[in-house]
Amino acid sequence: MDAEGTVRVDVWIWSVRLTKTRSQAAAACKAGHVRVNGERVKPAHGLRVGDQLRLFHAGRERVVVVSTILRKRVGAPVAVQAYVDNSPPPPPREFTAPVAIRDRGAGRPTKRDRRELERLQGGLPKP
C-alpha cells in the first residue's frame, strides 16, 4: 500500500474478480456502468477503503463496499474477503423448454415436423 491508500477503480474491479479482464472493467467505467459513492467515475479514479461501488455488468447489478485495497489479481477466496457484497439477489433463471432431439439419420425436418416442434416449445398456437 502506498501513502494515499488508493488504487485505480478498473484495477481493483479486475483484481477482486468482478470482471474477467481489466479491459472489461475499463470499458464498464467508460460506459458509465461504474459508480463510486453515487458518482460516475473514469477508470483512473482513486478507490479507497470504505467506498461504495456499484457495477452493472453481465446483466446484473453488483453493490460492494471496499474493505481491502488490492493492486494485483488474487485468488477467488482472497478476493471475496476484499469487499462486502450488498448486491441484490440475482433474478431467478427463466425456465427454458428442452431442445427437441431428432433421431440420427432422420433427415431434415419437414414443414409439418417443424411446426409441431414449435408448437411444443410454445411458439405457435394450435390451428
Short descriptors:
7 strands, 2 domains, Structural Genomics Hypothetical 15.5 Kd Protein In mrcA-pckA Intergenic Region, Chain A, two-stranded antiparallel sheet, five-stranded antiparallel beta sheet, alpha+beta, 127 residues, single chain
Describe what this molecule looks like in 3D.
By secondary structure, the chain is an alpha+beta fold. The longest helix is centred in the C-terminal third of the chain and has 10 residues, at 111-120. The chain is built from 4 helices and 7 strands, in the order βααβββββαβα. The chain has a 5-stranded antiparallel β-sheet with strand order 3-2-5-6-7. It has a two-stranded antiparallel ribbon with strand order 1-4. The protein starts with 6 loop residues before the first strand and ends in a 7-residue tail after the last helix. The protein is elongated. It comes from Streptomyces achmelvichensis.
Helix content: 10-25%
> What is the radius of gyration computed over CA atoms, rounded to a whole number of angstroms?
23 Å
**CATH topology heading of the largest domain:** Structural Genomics Hypothetical 15.5 Kd Protein In mrcA-pckA Intergenic Region, Chain A
Give the name of the CATH architecture of the largest domain.
Roll
Return residue spans where pLDDT drops below 50 for at least 5 consecutive residues.
none
> What's the end-to-end separation, in Å?
70 Å
Fraction of residues in β-strands: 15-25%
Oligomer: single chain
The CATH homologous superfamily of the largest domain: RNA-binding S4 domain
What's the CATH first level of the largest domain?
A: Alpha Beta
Largest sheet: 5 strands, antiparallel
Give the strand tally.
Answer: 7
Query: Could you state the order of secondary-structure elements as H and E?
Result: EHHEEEEEHEH
The rough form would be described as: elongated
Supply the number of structural domains. Answer: 2
Strand order of the largest sheet: 3-2-5-6-7
Note the total helix count: 4
How confident overall, as mean pLDDT? Answer: 88
Q: Structural class, from helix and strand content?
A: alpha+beta
